[in-house]
Amino acid sequence: MFQIRWHARAGQGAITGAKGLADVISKTGKEVQAFASYGSAKRGAAMMAYNRVDDGPILNHER
């Protein structure tokens, strides 16, 4: 398994990027997760998005 962590400011497209990457990777037959972690929902606030990729089922659903 490998994980990717995206650091950005809200509104810069990190969530869209993580979801787009997950769509592409899922077409290769791998299991993938994409999710975000952010505080207040306002433009410019610090946030992180994550991808998790593995050949088999991903049992970890934590950050």
TrEMBL record:
Domain Pyruvate/ketoisovalerate oxidoreductase catalytic: 10-61
Molecular functions per Gene Ontology: oxidoreductase activity, acting on the aldehyde or oxo group of donors
Domain of life: Bacteria
Source species of the chain: Helicobacter pylori (Campylobacter pylori)
Keywords: Oxidoreductase, Pyruvate
Gene3D superfamilies: Pyruvate-ferredoxin oxidoreductase, PFOR, domain III
Gene: porC
Protein name (Swiss-Prot/TrEMBL): Pyruvate ferredoxin oxidoreductase
One matching Pfam family: POR
Family matches, as PANTHER family: PYRUVATE SYNTHASE SUBUNIT PORC
